[in-house]
Amino acid sequence: MIADRRVLDRVAFGPDGLIAAIAQQHDTGEVLMLAWMNADALAETLATGQACYFSRSRNRLWRKGESSGQTQRVVSVRLDCDQDAVLLLVDQTGVACHTGRRSCFYLEAGPDGLAEIAAPLVAPDQLYR
Amino acid sequence: MIADRRVLDRVAFGPDGLIAAIAQQHDTGEVLMLAWMNADALAETLATGQACYFSRSRNRLWRKGESSGQTQRVVSVRLDCDQDAVLLLVDQTGVACHTGRRSCFYLEAGPDGLAEIAAPLVAPDQLYR
């Protein structure tokens, strides 16, 4: 248990019951991904210390790494001034992105449109076997 | 101009026309805030190199720092793998948070609930005069 469940009462979930959650590598500061949490996902994260999100596409809890093994151990859970966004400091096992990249934010806007600024470290078909 | 407008065509705005945008201090890695952008806000950010968001509470463009002077010069604009989240690397003038703190994420979840882990650097009444 990394935090008391009473924290949940302070969270301003949106009308859809979700809150945006940023995952950041705790020691390097790299922003890894942005995902969503409902109350159950945040409660599970606080209880287990492993990042659990809510998958909007699958409409169910998404225990990060459940199929890929690329889990996130949670070091700190922070809320912002309006309590309507979450920042998770995590220790990412392997890669955060389903494309096999460390971070999901690998597309940079420039004069010629979007450019890929990071290559996959793992082939996606090796992540999901 | 830091990026071509064609980038806008690649962005997956939500049904409300908005996309979540994370602002991160470019050199220290500190996550400063999470806000929202519509197409006009992102277009202006790409054109001017100064962060412009969409304020959901005021229902209008929010040129960061327009009343506080705490502007964000944009160093890089990145999209994630699904093109439905934005990461801005910025150089923050002063403080990002309306409470006078450097980062909005100053509430940390722990065994006793939420604890403040950062103090204001500026009094809010000095920010909005």
UniProtKB/TrEMBL annotation, chains A, B:
> What cofactor does this protein call for?
Mg(2+); Zn(2+)
Q: What is its EC number?
A: 3.5.4.19
InterPro entries membership: PRA-CH (IPR026660), PRib_AMP_CycHydrolase_dom (IPR002496), PRib_AMP_CycHydrolase_sf (IPR038019)
**GO CC, one annotated term:** cytoplasm
Asked whether the UniProt record includes Cytoplasm among its keywords, one would answer yes
Sequence positions that bind Zn(2+): C81, C97, C104
Q: Name one GO biological process term.
A: L-histidine biosynthetic process
Q: Which residues bind Mg(2+)?
A: D80, D82, D84
What the entry lists under Pfam families is as follows: PRA-CH
Presence of the UniProt keyword Zinc in the record: yes
Q: How is the cofactor bound?
A: Binds 1 Mg(2+) ion per subunit.
Mind telling me which Gene3D superfamilies this protein's record contains?
Phosphoribosyl-AMP cyclohydrolase
Q: Where in the cell is it found?
A: Cytoplasm
Going by the entry's taxonomy, the superkingdom of the source organism is recorded as Bacteria
Alphabetized GO MF terms = magnesium ion binding; phosphoribosyl-AMP cyclohydrolase activity; phosphoribosyl-ATP diphosphatase activity; zinc ion binding
**Domain annotation Phosphoribosyl-AMP cyclohydrolase: ranges:** 33-106
Purpose: Catalyzes the hydrolysis of the adenine ring of phosphoribosyl-AMP.
Spell out the PANTHER family in the cross-references.
Answer: HISTIDINE BIOSYNTHESIS BIFUNCTIONAL PROTEIN (PTHR42945), HISTIDINE BIOSYNTHESIS BIFUNCTIONAL PROTEIN HIS7 (PTHR42945:SF1)
Assembly information from the UniProt record: Homodimer.
Record-given protein name: Phosphoribosyl-AMP cyclohydrolase
What's the gene?
hisI
